[in-house]
Each structure stands twice: as C-alpha cells, then as structure tokens.
Amino acid sequence: MATTGGPHRFLVTGGNGFIGSYIAKALFYKGHYVRIADIKRTSYFNERISNEVLVGNLCDLSFCESAVRSMDTIMHFAATMGGMGAIHEANDFVIYNDNSTMTFNLVHAAVHRGVQRFFYASSACIYPTSLQHHGTNPVSLREHDVWSSGAPNPQGLYGLEKLNSELLLMQFVEKMQIRIARFHNIFGPYGSWVGGHEKAPAAQLRKALAAHMIPSTRHEIEIWGDGKQQRSFLYIDNCVEAILLLLESDCSEPINIGSDCSVTIDDLTKIAVQSAGMDVGDFHFRYMDDSRPVGVHARNSNNEFITKTLNWTPKITSRPMLDGNDMAARTELLSSFKTNKVSRGLEGPEKSLENLRSFAKSLARTTWRDTHELGLVHFQVKIYLGVDADDEFLLRREGNSEILNIESLLSEEGITNVSTEICNVPRGHVCAIWRQCAHRAWKEKADYFFTLIVQHGHVSQGMGCVAFTNVTFPGMPTFPIVHRTHMNAFGSKVIPKVFINQDRDPFLFQLYRKCGCCRMIPSSLSNGIGGSLSARYIQQHADGWTFGLLTEAAMLVLEASLTTSFPAATRKMTLDIIIPSYRVLLPFLDAILALKESPTCETMFIIIIDNPHSPNTTELEAKYAHRPDIRIRVNESNLGASASRNRGMKESAADWILFLDDDITPQDDILIEAEKAIRSNPQAAGFIGNTYFPVASTIFTNAVHLAGVTYFWDIAAKMPQNESDMPWGVTANLIARRVQDGVEFDLQFPKTGGGEDIDFCRKKRDFSVAHGGEGFYPAPHVVATHPWWSDGQRSYWRFYMWSKGDGGLIKLYPNLTYLDHTPNSAELFLISTASTILGAFTYLFTRSSVVFIVSMSLAMATVIANIVHDMYRHLWRDTNRTKALRSSLRGLGWAVAIAESALIRMASEGGRLIGLLERGEIMLIGHRFDWFTGRAGDGPMNEEILNGQQRMALVVLIFGVLCFKFCY
C-alpha cells in the first residue's frame, strides 16, 4: 500500500510531538486524511497539520480503540522519551511501563479494527551497548547487530522496550504490513530544547546562546561526560523523506534512519558556540564526568541497508544555523538554561510537600479562631489524606518513626488530627481517592453544619452543598462540602463511580441546586494546580452526567429526604440563561444580570464571550465573576453565535434553558413569566417568547417591518394562545427543555445567524414528540425588546446573510417545502445576468444589442414589478396587516418605506439563491420553505404562490413595454 496510490486515512500517535508533527504535516499536505492522537492538544506548528486531533492517553485501551477506528494506517510515534536527561536509570520503569502499554494497546486495537499498515518508531537504543563502548574504531551499527552479542543487550529499559515492541509487531506481519524505523538522533526546528528531554544539539546550542546573551556571566559550558562521546545526527527533513520512502516500500524488516557521519560532543559544542556568534576560544568547557548520565561512548548509523533498499541517503549535510531572534527570553530565564535538568517524568515529588505545607499553614491560620477561642461552639479540624499505594516518596518514614513524613509535616504546622488513606487506584483517578477518603470520614461520623440552608430551604438538617469561592476559577463551585446525610442517601458513596477526575464538584453543587440547597460562601481559596488551568493528569470527563445521572441522583437524595422530613417542600425548577456575546455590551448585560427569579426557581446566567480581545471582558468579570449564579466563559477565537450557544448548553445542568441575545432589554418579570409558562406545560419541548422592536420612526425601520424579515420575532402574539406546536422562534428570546437529545445549533449555518434557530426548534420539537412530549408553546408574556441594529442605520447585509443561511433548510426539510413555478426576483435576476453575459458576446460578434437590451429590460421590469406589487399589497389588499405595525411614519414617507421594503425582500431572496448556488443545491432552485411548517395550513403557501404569480404577470407586462420601447 503506497501513500501515492490515493488518499489514505492515517492515525499519527504523538502527532503533536517532534517527528510526529512533521510526518502528520507531510501526509496532510499530500491530501491524506490525518488524525492525531496525543496527550498534548497542539503542535508547535502555527498552521494546520491534520484533519482532527484526539486528546487522550494511549495507555487507556478505550482511547486507543476510538483513535484507531476507521483508520487504515497507524504511525506510532508516541512515547515517553528524550535525551539523556530523560532516558536514564531513574526513569527506566516509568518509561518501560508507559511505552509498552501504549504499543500493546495500539497493536490490540489495530488487529481488532483491521488496520492494514502499522509504522513503528523504534530507536538506536536497541543495539547492544557492548558494541558502543570505548574503542579505537567505533562500530557502525547495522540492523542485524541487535543479535550479534548473543542475548540482546540494549541501552536500559527504554531500549529493551523498543526491541520487545519490534518483536511484538513482527508477530502480526501476516495480519498487517509492518514498517519499523530505528531512529538515530533526529534534530531540527521544534525539537525539545529544554527540560531534560532535549537531544545534544539543542542542549549545547541552548547553553551557548544563553552564555552569549548574558555578558556578565563567565563564558562556560557544561558537557556531560568527557566530550569524547561520538554521535551521528540526522536533520528532520531527511528523516521525513526516509519515513515516507519506507511507507511506500515493501520493506517489513527494521531499518536504520540516521546519519552515518558522526561527531564528538566536544566538536558539537564548538559548532554550537560558533552558531551563537561567538569565538570558541572565549569559552571554557566544564566536563561533568561523574554526576550526569552520558550514555554509550560511540553510536553511528550504518546506512548500507537503507541505501540498497530505499535508495536513500541524507541530503542535508550543512549544519542549520540558529537565528538568535527566535530564542529571545528574559535574562534570568536564560541563566537557568545554562545547565541541564534531569527529568523524572513528573514535577519533582518535593513540590507536593511544599504545596501540602502551604495548605497546612493556610488552614491552621484561617481556622484558628474556630478551633481555639472560648465559647459555646468548638470546631475540630481533621484531615483525610489520600495517597497512591505506590507513592514511595510520600509514604516514607524518617528512621523508626511511626508516622509518615507527610503526617509529621502537618503536625509541624499545627494540624495533628490526620488520617492517611492508602489508595490503590489507577493514576489520575482522583475521584476514586476522594470517594475512599469520604467513606472513611463517613464511617468515623464526621459532621458538618448547614444551619443557614436549613433555615432558608425548609429542609432537614444536613441537606445541601456548600462551596468555597475559588479566586483562580471565579463562579465555579469547587471543593464542595456535604453532610454525612448525603453519604447515607448514597450508601456511603460521596459520588457515583462514573466520575474519574472531572465534574465531581459541579455534580454535587447542581444536585442540591435542584432544591435550592446549595451555597457558595465568601470564604475564598486559591487552587494553584488544575481548575481553569492545566491539570497534573489527563482530564477525563463523565459524559452526560448533567442528564440522567443528575436526575436519578436528585430523585434518590432530594425527593426521598424532602418527602420524609418536609412533605410540603417541592423540588425547585432550574433555569439557565445562556447569552452569547461578541460586543460585550455592558449596559445591556447589566440589565439582564439584574433579573430576579421567583423563590421556586433556581437560575444561573451563562455568558459566552465570542471575542477574546474584547476590551469590556475585564470589566464584566470584575463586576460579576464572583457571583455563583454567573458563569463567564471566553472563546479562544470568534466561533459565532451558534457555537457559543452550544458551549453554553454544555456548561448548563439545568432543567430548562432560556436563550437571550446580548443586546435585548428583557421585561423585569421575564424569569417569573418563563417559570409560569414552563409549569403550565411541563411536557413542552420549549416556549417561544415575544421580542419586540422599538416603534419604527424612519423609512428604513418601517421598510424592515414591511419586508417581513422580523415577522417571527413576536410570533407568540400572532398565533392562537392554545397553540401547542409553534413553528419556531428566534433565539433572541427562546426557552428550550434541556434533555439528552443530542440537539445543538448546526454550525453549517452562517456564524452571523440565519436558519439555525429554525433547525434547532424543529429538531427539539421532533425529538420531544417522538418521545411522548409536545412541541413548542407560545409564551406571549415572556417579553424582551430588541433595538434596531446599528441604531437603525441602513444596511441590507444582515438580511442577505440570514437568507443565505436559511436557504439550507430546503434540503434539510423537504417535507416542509413546496415548489413555486413562478421565479422570484433573485431567480429573474439570475436569468437576466446570464442573458447579459450572452448579450455581451453577441454584441462582440454581431454588433447586435438586442439580447443585451432584453436582459436589461428584464432586470428593470423585475425591480419595478416587485415595488408596484408591494405597493398594491400594503396600501390596498392587506391594509389591516399594515395598520398593525408599530410605526410613527406618515404620508409620502410611508410609500417610500414600502418601496424600500421591496428592495430588502429582494436582497433576502438574492441571499437565499446565492446560498443554494454556493452549496451546489442547484436542483432546489424554485423550492420554498414553509415558514409556518404547516401549522397555518396551506394559507401562507397559497398566498406566497399567488404573490409570485401576480408579480410575474407584472414583470411580463412591464418587460413587454420596455422591450417595445427600446427595440422599436
């Protein structure tokens, strides 16, 4: 299977790493489908290098199976690896375990999924170290040298794992094509250059550059070992070329990919100094013979086999020079770069003790009064520590001490009541540790006080959840406190087992929110790791917990407890208000965030800011981020209103959602009226409110009304009040039931809007009806006012774009469309344009302008006919509708507004036609969408068809007159 035989589907593991990202980019640019699976979210490339990225841990078999699905080739680069700062004895077991688990999982998934080809990134570390010791003639390592010393003797467990993985893969050579490359020191742009994972070229270059940029520092560079070690280095572009050739070949044997020209570390360091723009004579080399890992003495690739098999030799022989401008950094940071660090895979364990001591000091300081002051009530602090069973560092004891070091540390800070739980759970399963500690606390009858919740919520003692104010993650309920009553209801389990390391805090808070028994107290804390920042582990969310799991838990805990202790108590309704905002208009948002709900409803405002550069975001967060009922999220880029609403829905855990635009002015009782509507028809899919515009006082604003583009904004006032299946409503003021129906706003519609609200309402309605519910109800008392866009300044672009998007509904909902045999204005303009082009060619060859005149006459007739017909409709035939408009315009201005409304309607029809053409839906030209979705019978369709016929008759009449005038 050659990569040149047509587009293939590649999974590149470690595709955001060094070599993997270059391969992903090369394959992607060749037109192949590339999926990256990596523990990192992004690569160092600014441009796009793949079709999709999956973020997860390949040590998780289920993640591997998901990643491999539908792929025909696996390019396995993912590994815990690096230079001598990472691959050494202290890391051996971690590296072996991680790398072997990843490879085994991938091979298992590949065989199960029927993958056709598997590329494995092996290493020169598999070669016997006995061949690479001190000697007068360094050995050039051939592929078969692995077995030259009898039993294999690779470099450390890293090399052994690579060799074992090669053998594992060769067992499946009959099931899939195997390609194995043994890399010899690949280097180049975007390779690691700091932190212990870097190779020698980057390490020495970094040290030289740091010395060069700090004149006050003595020019000294440390070298690990005696500097006589020999290595060969291959530039990344050569490496990519060789890998692609190997893929296209039939070679299933392991093959070297490296350079056969070696250099000593001394000479490499001299090259680095020269590249930094300095004289070698100005430097002193400090050799670290005993204190640093140095690896084998000599390693060089023998390229005879790859030259013979692939006809490949390295083409880039000149050393790349380093541009100093790319490495600009602070002086103090560069100073720390002058020595290498030995990586332990994770942050040093000493750091955890520092964090624990800081926590203990803070806890002792902030609880001193509660635990020491004289009074009627005394509190006692007890710490339950959860420690991994294999964490030898934290479980150490000093000498013959009976207590652990970590317990001794807490005692030094005044925290003496400590119980340590040894937790034998998978790495990163924080919630499992939390459950185990909570279970022990429950068994020991630890109690907490919830007096205020009892008083205000009319619930039994112990009902509720209290969360601190987290200054590092404002508005998010973190580190929740629950009573043992909660544990009793859950059978001694604080949270269900579905939670791994994410979502536990909001789960508990949202659980008790359903009866108004949650509070965020002003006492604050700062979370230095995790929260809104990167975590120490791979984040694993409990998908769908805000639906069935939350509902079942609420039934178990809340309903049982309430009916037992307080039969008159009722569960509160939860309603989240989602507001996407690009401009972050503070006066409008202030009014929305000041809305009040009834005592029987719990609300939360979720604001999704779609402009990461908005200057008003800081002020908004300063005013409101501390409020627990307000959640402010900022998109990394401008995604559009639909994507922002989708993110808002993912943030929500409420029963119902109220969508509001960020520039509406809601009626003061909008939340109370929304609750009334919901409680009146709890089986509805949603409710459509009324959104009014200010009185139309200009020609343009009246024309907008007359054009019909705002007709559905207040549809709730126009449809019968007993209507139980409203067609749709605009998202400026729309209520939807939050259920696990998978319905989101479709991103195929324009970011600025147009059709996505109709599509959303229809999908929500169809799901509800199919599952025994009802459609959308009108909510005429749920009222908001929307200002005229841009203060009423004239612009047709918005309506053009709306129609460009909503034309996509014709293909999505063929059962709600009909065929209109008379062309509308846009379709006539399309015919006129085509005729004009034909007329231009005709005139060039025949000097006859008849065709050109005919086409121009058709365009003019179309405009005149549409204006005349709208005059007839609004001033004669449909005067009752016209009089119902909220307008202050009178006299001649009214007639001008009617004429302009025809232009707005034609702009909308033009946008709809352009959208069909751009999407290639040419066969749908002439089809119209029934905006009332059949709820008004055939009346609206028949009226539109009649309007089209009347306009077409006028077009024909005026067209005939114009042709007669211009042609004769």
| Class from helix and strand fractions | alpha/beta
Cα(first) to Cα(last) distance is 70 Å
Strand order, sheet with most strands: 23-22-21-24-27-26-28-25
The CATH homologous superfamily of one domain: NAD(P)-binding Rossmann-like Domain
Residue share in helix:
25-40%
Q: From the 3D coordinates, which CATH architecture of one domain would you assign?
A: 3-Layer(aba) Sandwich
Radius of gyration: 35 Å
* CATH domain class of one domain: Alpha Beta
- Poorly predicted runs: 82-88, 318-346, 448-455
Largest sheet: 8 strands, mixed
Bin the strand percentage. 15-25%
Number of extended strands: 30
**Overall mean pLDDT:** 82
Structural shape: globular
Number of helices: 29
CATH topology grouping of one domain: Rossmann fold
Protein name: Glycosyltransferase family 2 protein
GO molecular function, one term: glycosyltransferase activity
Keywords: Glycosyltransferase, Membrane, Transferase, Transmembrane, Transmembrane helix
Pfam family, one: Glycos_transf_2
